[in-house]
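Residues determine shape. We examine one folded chain.
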Amino acid sequence: VDDDQQVRLPQRPRPAPDLPTAEGLAAAHRYAARRGGLVSFAAIDSEGRLYGRDLERLYSAASTVKAMLLAAEIDRLERGGLPLDDGTDALLRSMIVFSDNDAADAIHARVGEVAGRAGMTRFTEAGHWGNAQIDAADLARFYWRLGELMDGPHREFALGLLGSVTATQGWGIPAAAGDAWAVRFKGGWLPGRGLAHQGAELRERGGDDQLALAVLTD
């Protein structure tokens, strides 16, 4: 081949992601349709494609917003060149691992407006952080971008917290994922209203598949 010629070998198409399957999505739609109240869900596959039901229906975020508060505080520390001191470490651990509301109040007072720092598009605050409005598509996109949002010197610490939520709060997505997936997630609930949400990043152990999931119910 002459130096000024290029040979382009055929590109082998990458296999379609294994999940979510069409059958699985159809089953999820059927199940959601049979439930009382409001049900939305979103899934983003390994190629970044978004699937779901009632993707843009807004819900009160409850404690799912604590993951955004974590991202906002990590961003604040990075921008300011600040260390992760013992007090901040303790607050963030309590807020994420045990879903402590007082710790969330303290972090919210530091970071102020959360949406821009957390990379959300439709997320809006409404007074107390727990009343923020969120939809399934936005929550799934947050977890799809989790590694990017938790960038900087405190990245592994922050991601580790979302992978260390106490076992008593590990129902839902983590329980369904089992040992086949590494799961980083945060839930939120308001028992008096029957509201329960979860958002999660899942990475296949020993494989290449990645999923971002969000389930919102009221």
